């Protein structure tokens, strides 16, 4: 039977028998036919299948979504690189952190210079208890509830309550010391934190691998703190404050590198900028409290 101006090649397969497996072109060598691959059979007759066409290219974004716009040939789809996302994340974190530190500094200056306010708080201890309860609730909510710390404006509401309560406690603690000691501690804390942050940005050492060690050291510090309640003394308080300042200095480097991400093994998600700011804020205020304790004991 002639077909397309020629005849089917003679071989073990007849016209009625389809090619094996309906696999298409790769089952037969091209050089076996005079004019390349034979033309396909007419409609309704068995033969090989034409390979399906590739689906049109659809650009995907970083979250697995698709770009709804049509992509012209030769045009590159616009995508955010990971570095640009991380830079925006860092800007958000430090913007929030600066606002938190400004609120805390305002509370400290208010209580240090206004003795009537500090005396009022001393005669109304329920305000301190309320602040402690607020701190515990907000920390648990932002640390344990992943959806809450990513959902706006709920994350900012909880972070604002936490910042106000923590600033109030800092101001109450600072009102026990003289004004020059308090602001000397503020200056030393600012210099230490700036130096540690620059070190965390530049160093090649990966501090994100020592999270377990830092957690164990934090438990030891808490036990040491309970011991100092029963065994009071200037030497004991100096050792405790020095150990605490050193531990939270390392924690500041650790949390900063978690925020930076990139070359480090562990990193904070760009959606958790509120949680990252809270971690850095906790490190800085703990360093301030321990430095204030060291200066107060040294001055006495």
Class by SSE composition: mainly alpha
Order of helices and strands: EEHHHHHHHHH
Strand line-up in the sheet with most strands: 1-2
From the spread of the alpha carbons, the general shape counts as globular
Q: Report the mean per-residue pLDDT as an integer.
A: 77
Biggest pleated sheet: 2 strands, antiparallel
Please bin the fraction of helical residues.
55-70%
- Low-confidence stretches are 1-5, 21-25, 57-80
Strand content: under 5%
End-to-end Cα distance: 113 Å
Number of helices: 9
Q: How large, in whole angstroms, is the Cα Rg?
A: 34 Å
Name the features.
single chain; 300 residues; mainly alpha; disordered N terminus; globular; 2 strands; two-stranded antiparallel ribbon
What does this structure look like?
By secondary structure, the chain is mainly α. The chain has nine helices and two strands, in the order ββααααααααα. It has helices at about 80-115, 115-120, 125-145, 145-150, 155-175, 180-200, 210-230, 235-260, 275-300; strands at about 1-5, 5. A two-stranded antiparallel ribbon has the order 1-2. α1 crosses α2, α1 runs parallel beside α9 and α7 (about 210-230) packs antiparallel against α8. It is globular, with a radius of gyration of 34 Å. Mean pLDDT is about 75; it is low at about 1-5, about 20-25 and about 55-80.
Give a topology summary:
Layout: E1 2-3, E2 6-7, H1 82-113, H2 115-122, H3 126-144, H4 146-150, H5 154-174, H6 179-202, H7 211-230, H8 234-260, H9 273-299
Antiparallel strand pairs: 1-2
Helix pairs in contact: 1-2, 1-5, 1-9, 3-5, 5-9, 6-8, 6-9, 7-8, 8-9
Q: How do you describe this structure in short?
A:
The chain is mostly helical and about 300 residues long. About 60% of the residues lie in helices and about 0% in strands.
